[in-house]
Specification:
The protein is α+β, with helices and mostly antiparallel strands. The protein has three helices and eight strands; from the N terminus they run αββαβαβββββ. The chain folds into two domains: 69 residues, RimP-like superfamily, N-terminal (GMP Synthetase, Chain A, domain 3, 2-Layer Sandwich); 63 residues, Roll (SH3 type barrels), CATH 2.30.30.100. Helix 1 packs across helix 2. The model has no long low-confidence stretch (mean pLDDT 95).
Length: 148
């Protein structure tokens, strides 16, 4: 089986010096490799093609067959790494905490331990804006809160 660390090393070498970052790499028992990338500017189809070709060129299908899929982390995909939080500062997010609480608000900041969102709180017919700090250890899932 191809190792995730092997794929990670290949891709990290390729994207060094660019603004691309790896969100997730999955390799299953059948050697289906799925790579999710992101960037502050977004990921283009050409970025995915380049990474795919790079990985293909470094692996030997004669030795071990594999399937490879490289794509951007989609808008509906949960955040996996801190860089995704940083990229989305200023955007509306929905956070599910480990205790089942759902918090919605504008992502204000992100540090090594937590994120801060600004959320609306209704109190006696009045709307107040409050800031809520949520530790990463308490986050079950965070997604963009897409509003159309």
């Amino acid at each position: 089986m191809i190792k995730e660390t092997t794929i990670r090393h290949i891709i990290e070498e390729k994207i060094k010096g660019s603004d691309l970052f790896i969100v997730e790499i999955c390799v299953n028992q059948a050697n289906k490799i799925t790579v999710y990338l992101d960037s502050p500017k977004g990921v283009t189809i050409n970025d995915c093609i380049e990474i795919s070709r790079c990985v293909e060129s470094k692996l030997d299908r004669e030795k071990e067959d594999f399937a490879l899929e490289v794509s951007s982390a989609g808008l509906t995909m949960p955040f996996k790494i801190k860089e995704q939080y940083v990229k989305n500062i200023g955007k509306s997010v929905k956070i599910k905490t480990l205790d089942g609480q759902i918090l919605k608000g504008n992502l204000l900041s992100c540090d090594e331990q937590s994120v801060v969102i600004e959320s609306e709180k209704k109190e006696k017919k009045e709307k107040l804006m409050i800031q809520i700090r949520v530790d990463f250890d308490n986050i079950k899932e965070t997604k963009l809160d897409l509003i159309f």
